[in-house]
Amino acid sequence: MNKQISDADHAAAPRRATSRQSGKAFATALVLLCLSLSCPIQLASQSKPSKSAPAPAPAPAPIQPPLARHYQDGERIAYTISCINQSRSKTTEYEARAEGVVSKNPSGVFAENFAWTDLSVNDDQVRLSAASRAFREPLSLAPGFKLAIPDLGQVQSGLIGPIADLLTFYADVKIAMNQKALMHAGDHAYVSYGAPNSWADGTKVVVGQDSIDFSVILQSVDPATQTATLVVRHVPPEQPQIKLPARWMTTPIGASKNNWVQVEKGSDGKYIAGVGQETFDVRIKLALATGRILSATMDNPVEVMERACNDAALTDCGNPERYSIRRQITLHADTPPVQSPPK
């Protein structure tokens, strides 16, 4: 059963094993989903003219925004998504392929239903289980569709990162499509959010949070190539809302206030506590005629200060160590297969 994200519920730090990376990726996806569902509604009040008043002049036709998804039933889509994850001690990579077909869901809204067909981790091909091959990820940029975190109980752990990262790109585009101010190249919208997003599992990762706002720019609209380019920056809020469990964590690591924190409990009873500044720089190219994603990149660096501590209160700690971690994700559209995957 999918976990639906409502309007009232209102997108990855790489310094973790695969399952914890995926948890952070979904924490990021979660906030993006919440924001992507917050569609502003503009209401115009009208009063009935009196009999003696002249008839009002007809209103000019509204200008259509350049960013909109136009679906066709049976449309086939395929993407390859890859990630380079540079942690403090090692670099890991994945590459995965998703194939989808457009159809209407039970509510009559168009959706892209993706099947994951290929996965490699660190250049080793991963054999997908029957359950992973049967899994479908429904995504849509259509108005009225609520993006959701799917049930991942049956998929292999190596697929969770690609599933979350593809979801994040769609949610970023949906946030942009909801901004009515993005009409011309160079237009900008700032979306305040700031609420903490958690990837803590309560056992290994006892604290894991970040806090971000969104700066959205319609960077270019190219009539010659019929493409538009979006830049969506996930930036530290003026007042991040993460919970910092120790006073030493309040010292800023970079130019802004700290917006990332993680505390891991080791098997020896000690705690590895880190705090820092996290940003995302997402660039997405869209087809103007269809609104379809053609390609995208995400650069996700985190500047960290970390200390090893002997107590849960993080007061008896060793000297701080500084380092950087970084995730770089690339998405590009492929030629869809002749036969679409089953719905």
In short, what is this structure?
The chain is mainly beta and 343 residues long. 13% of the residues lie in helices and 38% in strands.
Give an overview in words:
This protein has 343 residues and is mainly beta. It has a single domain, classed as Lipovitellin-phosvitin complex, beta-sheet shell regions, CATH 2.30.230. The protein has 3 helices and 17 strands. It has helices at 18-36, 130-134, 157-177; strands at 3-4, 76-86, 91-104, 110-121, 124-125, 136-139, 148-149, 188-191, 197-198, 205-210, 213-222, 227-235, 260-265, 271-278, 280-287, 293-309, 321-333. The strands form 2 sheets. It has a 15-stranded antiparallel sheet that branches. Strands 1-7 form a two-stranded antiparallel sheet. A hairpin with a 4-residue loop joins strand 11 (213-222) and strand 12. The longest helix has 21 residues, at 157-177. The two termini are 16 Å apart.
**Major sheet characteristics:** 15 strands, antiparallel
- The radius of gyration over CA amounts to 22 Å
The residue fraction in helices comes out at 10-25%
Mean pLDDT: 86
N-to-C SSE string, H for helix and E for strand: EHEEEEHEEHEEEEEEEEEE
CATH class: Mainly Beta
Q: What amount of the residues lies in strands? A: 35-45%
Indicate the topology.
Layout: E1 3-4, H1 18-36, E2 76-86, E3 91-104, E4 110-121, E5 124-125, H2 130-134, E6 136-139, E7 148-149, H3 157-177, E8 188-191, E9 197-198, E10 205-210, E11 213-222, E12 227-235, E13 260-265, E14 271-278, E15 280-287, E16 293-309, E17 321-333
Antiparallel strand pairs: 1-7, 2-3, 2-17, 3-4, 4-5, 4-6, 8-11, 9-10, 10-13, 11-12, 12-15, 13-14, 14-16, 15-16, 16-17
Helix pairs in contact: 1-3
